[in-house]
Design a protein that fits this description.
Elements lengths: L1 H23 L6 E3 L3 E3 L12 E8 L6 E8 L4 E4 L2 E5 L5 E7 L13 E8 L2 E8 L6 E4 L12 E7 L6 E7 L12 E2 L8 E4 L5 E3 L2 E3 L1 E4 L4 E4 L9 H4 L3 E4 L13 E6 L3 E9 L16 E8 L4 E5 L9 E7 L24
Parallel strand pairs: 2-9
Antiparallel strand pairs: 1-3, 3-7, 4-6, 4-8, 5-7, 8-9, 10-24, 11-12, 11-23, 13-20, 14-17, 15-16, 17-18, 18-19, 19-24, 20-21, 21-22, 22-23
Length: 349
């Protein structure tokens, strides 16, 4: 009799639990990863190559939810640890170590190869691209990749290092103001010339190993070196000329008092896009005016580059963003094995 009573109470409890779950729903986990791609570096002169990297997994879901995850490398030359586990929302992110097997007899940088790591859990799946192809520091937002723009309030820093990727990248986060105040300088006169040519004699600006004494600043949100570039509406156009592609904005749509200001300083050239809306379908505020984007580029005479994004239009838009070494034909990247970057996952500095 006691056993029957006990089983009855258990069944009643389970029934109530099912009803509560039906009415309120179970806490839902939300799988997140810290990077979507990684380019393994190498030095073609010393033969020293990168073989190890880490990324993080965490649960950004409902309170009390548990995320059960799996990490599966698609290529047999990729090793990961751990391969599975569980994370509560209160847990610290899990560090996943990635090791790639390189040919130990190779005397220089091994042949280019690209593979993938599938991370799944909570009904979601993330795919991380890992590659030994050089990092071209170019990311595609929106479009087929469906990546939301995630560089608001950051400064991207590129320092020439002579390695396989030519530059070493770092990132500063939670940036609230420009590195260089833009209150002094000259306006780019797009009514006279667009792109607007800026010539300088203080010193040349090195970009991908080539020294330039003039740059072209476009109202459409890019800077090209030594020649007029192309509006980077595709990856192919982005790589047609040496240039830096920033955002699909249009300074010709800016209100009075806004625009593009440039300054020639002893150590660098600074170009600032002040209160510029997106070229197409910007977010419209309660005042009926488009969202104002603010971007600054610092080109140092020693080759260092800093790109600062303050608050950027929150809507999802299509954009090709980053550095272009040039050499493309206007329709395709300069290399067949091009892999897009994940600029926001660079080491924080």
């Amino acid at each position: 009799m006691k056993v029957f009573f006990f089983l009855h109470r258990i069944s009643t409890f389970l029934l109530l639990l099912c009803v509560m779950t039906f009415l309120t729903g179970c806490p839902k986990p939300d799988l997140q990863v810290s990077a979507l791609s990684h380019h393994f570096g190498g030095d073609m002169y010393t033969g020293i190559v990168e073989t190890d990297w880490e990324f993080q997994i965490w649960n950004a879901g409902d309170k009390n939810s548990i995320l059960y995850y799996k990490v599966e490398p698609i290529k047999n030359w990729i090793l990961v640890n751990p391969t599975s586990g569980k994370i509560a929302t209160t847990d610290e992110p899990v560090n996943v170590s990635v090791h790639i097997n390189r040919d130990s007899t190779q005397k220089s940088v091994p042949s280019f190869a690209t593979g993938y790591i599938k991370v799944s859990g909570g009904g979601k799946e993330k795919v991380i691209t890992v590659t030994t192809v050089p990092n071209f520091y170019t990311e595609v937002f929106g479009g087929l990749y469906n990546r939301p723009f995630d560089l608001s309030n950051t400064t991207l820093v590129f320092i020439p290092d002579g390695g396989l990727h030519f530059y070493k990248q770092g990132i500063k986060k939670n940036v609230q103001q420009f590195q260089q105040p833009p209150n002094m300088g000259n306006y780019a006169l797009f009514a006279v010339q667009d792109p607007f040519k800026i010539a300088f004699s203080i010193a040349p600006i090195p970009f991908y190993g080539v020294k330039y004494t003039d740059i072209y600043v476009s109202s459409k949100g890019y800077i090209s070196f030594g020649a007029k570039g192309l509006e980077p509406i595709t990856v192919g156009k982005h790589f047609a000329y040496p240039q830096i592609s920033l955002l699909p904005i249009d300074a010709l749509l800016a209100e009075e008092g806004s625009g593009v200001i440039y300054s020639l300083l002893p150590q660098k050239i600074v170009i600032s896009w002040i209160n510029i809306p997106l070229a197409q379908s910007p977010t419209i505020g309660e005042d009926g005016k488009p969202f104002k984007n603010n971007i600054q580029v610092e080109l140092f005479f020693d080759g260092k580059i800093q790109i600062t994004y303050l608050s950027i239009d929150p809507k999802q838009f299509n954009a090709v963003v980053g550095l272009s070494c040039g050499g493309g034909d206007g329709t395709s990247p300069p290399v067949q094995d091009f892999v897009i970057s994940d600029l926001s996952s660079a080491p924080e500095i």
